[in-house]
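[recover] target loaded
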């Protein structure tokens, strides 16, 4: 299948054509996944390893000695044939040296705390952007055909209603600014004269699922319902959000790796679940699943907290043929199964 390209402000649109101008990633069989010790990266790596003949090179700066969660993720991945690992910053020469055989780089590694990005965490955000630039330069030199980068709904800033990729980004936190810079940097590298690379920036909406970061709001709700511990509710908690189960998110990443694009093309796509709900409504579902209430402690809204993030997925369906499959309730129930299993294995675990 071949494609013609029309450029818009936020993205490049693809339409079916027959002029032979499309490019799939070349049949090298190695995919590099950065941030592989993290929530999303570990799921993406597992899904790729389930594909026939696929090899995955994971990159992360966390080591198994850092915490038991990282140790467990790496032990599982390293038990799988086809997995290899570089423990380094994504900008290090050790990573650049491995890119020649890669058909795609899925760049997920980044500091993810919005609250911290206002303070001391901004140094890490800025360093992460420099590391991303080094990684992207190395991808260009190694002629990696496809780059998929993690962006975020936080690039939009406060928007009423469902937001599509044509809405001009207006991030309201340093985290959101750096996510926007990362996706624009990826596009700039792809569009550099002589580049053989194309990019897809995926704007993830709030994700949850097994192995979610324990500080993430949904994990904290289950913890609160299970233990009776209070958790802060910043603002009134009634703003709507689209919640994304990690299985849907992984499906979008796999589709972005395979998407036919010509060198130089830069695509931007929202990735989200199909259900929207406020924090309070998600809390009510958690309460129903666990059987005991989430105990909220009212708190002021923090700078950069979104007033709601609802995704318009029309572009994702058209470009990636992506339609989310996991409902919010199904996703919460499966997360609860996973968390209960963890509590049974390690009853003293804080979450
Ligand atoms: P995570 O914190 O679980 O994982 C990130 C991983 O990246 C960590 O293992 C960390 O050690 C690693 N890392 C960070 N900087 C690095 C560097 N410079 N070099 C090497 N490794 C580095 O986060 P996650 O939830 O899996 O998020 C993955 C990506 O998706 C991030 O880019 C994040 O901004 C984006 N995102 C996540 C969500 C969500 O709801 N989880 C929503 C929107 C966007």
């Amino acid at each position: 299948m071949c494609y013609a390209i029309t450029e818009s402000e936020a993205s490049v649109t693809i339409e079916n054509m027959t002029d032979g101008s499309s490019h799939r990633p070349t049949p090298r069989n190695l995919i590099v996944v950065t941030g592989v010790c993290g929530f999303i990266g570990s799921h993406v790596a597992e899904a790729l390893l389930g594909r026939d003949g696929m090899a995955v090179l994971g990159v992360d700066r966390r080591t198994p000695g850092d915490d038991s969660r990282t140790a467990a993720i790496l032990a599982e991945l390293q038990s799988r044939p086809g997995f290899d690992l570089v423990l380094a910053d994504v900008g290090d020469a050790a990573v650049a040296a491995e890119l020649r055989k890669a058909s795609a780089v899925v760049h997920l590694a980044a500091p993810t705390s919005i609250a911290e990005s206002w303070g001391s965490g901004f140094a890490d955000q800025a360093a992460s952007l420099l590391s991303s630039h080094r990684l992207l330069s190395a991808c260009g030199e190694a002629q990696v055909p496809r780059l998929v980068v993690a962006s975020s709904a936080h690039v939009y800033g406060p928007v009423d209603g469902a937001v599509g990729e044509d809405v001009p980004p207006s991030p309201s936190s340093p985290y959101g600014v750096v996510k926007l810079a990362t996706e624009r940097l990826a596009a700039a590298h792809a569009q550099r004269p002589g580049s053989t690379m194309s990019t897809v920036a995926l704007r993830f909406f709030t994700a949850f699922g097994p192995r979610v970061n324990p500080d993430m709001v949904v994990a904290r709700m289950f913890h609160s319902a299970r233990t009776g511990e209070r958790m802060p509710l910043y603002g009134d908690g009634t703003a709507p959000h689209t919640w994304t189960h990690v299985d849907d998110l992984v499906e979008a990443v796999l589709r972005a790796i395979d998407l036919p694009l010509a060198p130089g093309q830069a695509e931007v796509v929202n990735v989200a679940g199909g259900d929207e709900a406020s924090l309070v409504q998600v809390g009510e579902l958690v309460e129903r699943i666990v059987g005991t209430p989430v105990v909220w402690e009212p708190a002021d809204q923090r700078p950069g907290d979104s007033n709601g993030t609802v995704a318009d997925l029309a572009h994702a369906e058209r470009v990636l043929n992506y339609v989310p499959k996991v409902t919010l309730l199904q996703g919460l129930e499966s997360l609860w199964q996973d968390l209960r299993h963890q509590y049974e294995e390690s009853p003293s675990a804080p979450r």
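[recover] notes: The domain at 2-207+244-273+310-325 is CATH 3.40.50.720 (Rossmann fold).
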